[in-house]
Amino acid sequence: MMADRSMADCIEDYLKEILSDVDQIELKRSDIATRFNVVPSQINYVIKTRFTLQNGYLVESKRGGGGYIRIAKVTMGPDAHFIEELLQDLPSQVTVKQANDILTCLTREHVLTEHEKCLVETLLSKETLGVLAMHDAQAQLRARLLSQLLNRLRFESERE
């Protein structure tokens, strides 16, 4: 188990070294696996656990013979601290009212436009999530969706 961990660290360090000079890299999973003499699933593990949105990376992956992994660095937007606080206070179940209150707050702080707020409200509504019979399941899914939105907003890509 320790050997797996240190190999994962080596792979992570290698990819971060490449990313230190550029904002985005595109690579083949099999090439990296060959370089480190590991199976491609080890590369998947490193990418999935070390290059997350929460850690400041966006990952796009396409499987298959012509497949690739694209890793892009993202930076925290100016509202990152504010959004981080919202995330920390987000319960595991969120009512429609709680979700709408958070969206209103994000709109007031100019993180979302009014149009974006309305779109997200529609996605988080009882009508949309009503396919789940259990009210608790709706509230849990609403919380997860809102959490993902907040994480994405927290790490807005740098715009030139």
What does this structure look like?
This protein folds into two domains: 2-73, 2-Layer Sandwich (Phenylalanyl-tRNA Synthetase, Chain B, domain 1); 80-154, Orthogonal Bundle (Non-ribosomal Peptide Synthetase Peptidyl Carrier Protein, Chain A). The protein is elongated. The longest helix has 20 residues, at 135-154. The protein has 160 residues and is mostly helical. It has helices at residues 2-19, 29-36, 40-50, 80-89, 96-108, 114-123, 126-129, 135-154, and strands at residues 24-27, 57-62, 68-73. Helix 1 packs across helix 3, helix 4 packs antiparallel against helix 8 and helix 5 runs antiparallel to helix 6.
- CATH level-3 fold name of the largest domain: Non-ribosomal Peptide Synthetase Peptidyl Carrier Protein, Chain A
Low-confidence stretches: none
Number of strands: 3
Our Rg estimate from Cα atoms comes to 19 Å
Which strands sit side by side, in order, in the main sheet? Answer: 1-3-2
Q: What is the chain-wise order of helices and strands?
A: HEHHEEHHHHH
Which architecture of the largest domain per CATH? Answer: Orthogonal Bundle
* Residues in helices, as a percent range: 55-70%
Number of domains: 2
Mean pLDDT: 85
| First-last Cα distance | 43 Å
